[in-house]
């Protein structure tokens, strides 16, 4: 369970590389996440995510890959994503908090969505040719932690960095429920 954090869970790139499958299937709950509840950056494996419960988070799921070719599938199944529930109010937590090159602590809403959106359930996955983290990029002499951005201009995490690399990609949603999404959510939009 993650609560009141910038990032709920950060799925590191899979050491097995392309062709391998990484699964987050044990069940994960995230509530009131200021930026992204389930985030993957520089993922090289195919990804299956299931049994999520996400509520009151700026972005529910954002999955980003460094892979090319035609065998690119991401699966989200058996999950529930809530927009703004009764636990949210317009008196607090109206704007996101996301890291940028000039705000590494994430004290402002630096999300690519900006303040026009209060909540977004699932962002379309990105398949790019350039790694964001020092773990995969390998240019930094010291890479601790492995989620250190190779270049600060690549932030926020959901921002496109590099060029599209997949010739074919798909995202499959199986048995995923969306609830509590409002066109007017404290003066901003919320979309599943």
Quick overview:
This protein has 192 residues and is mostly beta strands. It has one helix and 13 strands; from the N terminus they run βββββββββββαββ.
SSE topology:
Blueprint: E1 2-3, E2 7-11, E3 21-24, E4 28-31, E5 36-43, E6 46-50, E7 52-55, E8 59-66, E9 73-82, E10 117-122, E11 126-128, H1 134-137, E12 170-179, E13 189-191
Tell me the overall shape.
Answer: globular
Global structural class? mainly beta
Q: What percentage of residues falls in helices of 4 or more residues?
A: under 10%
Helix and strand sequence? EEEEEEEEEEEHEE
Low-confidence stretches: none
Number of strands: 13
Distance separating the two termini: 21 Å
What is the chains' assembly state? Answer: single chain
Mean of residue pLDDT values: 91
The major β-sheet equals: 7 strands, parallel
Task: Tell me the fraction of residues in β-strands, as a range.
Answer: 35-45%
Global Rg: 16 Å
List the total number of helices.
1
Keywords, please?
about 190 residues; seven-stranded parallel β-sheet; globular
Structure commentary:
This protein is an all-beta fold. Helix content is 2%, strand content 38%. It has one helix and 13 strands; from the N terminus they run E-E-E-E-E-E-E-E-E-E-E-H-E-E.
């Amino acid at each position: 369970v993650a609560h009141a954090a910038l990032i709920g869970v950060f799925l590191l790139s899979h050491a097995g590389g392309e062709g391998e499958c990484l699964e987050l299937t044990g069940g994960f709950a995230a509530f009131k996440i200021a930026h992204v509840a389930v985030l993957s950056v520089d993922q090289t494996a195919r990804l299956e995510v299931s049994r999520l419960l996400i509520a009151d988070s700026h972005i529910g799921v954002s999955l980003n890959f460094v892979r090319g070719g035609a065998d690119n599938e991401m699966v989200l199944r058996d999950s529930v994503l809530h927009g703004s529930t009764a636990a949210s109010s317009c008196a607090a937590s109206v704007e996101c908090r996301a890291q940028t090159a000039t705000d590494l602590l994430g004290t402002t809403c630096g999300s690519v969505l900006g303040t026009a959106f209060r909540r977004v359930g699932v962002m379309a996955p990105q398949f790019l040719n350039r790694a964001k983290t020092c773990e995969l990029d390998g240019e930094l002499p010291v890479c601790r932690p492995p989620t250190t951005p190779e270049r600060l201009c690549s932030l926020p995490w959901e921002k496109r960095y590099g060029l599209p690399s997949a010739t074919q990609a798909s995202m499959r949603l199986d048995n995923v429920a969306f609830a509590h999404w409002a066109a007017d959510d404290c003066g901003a939009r919320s979309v599943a």
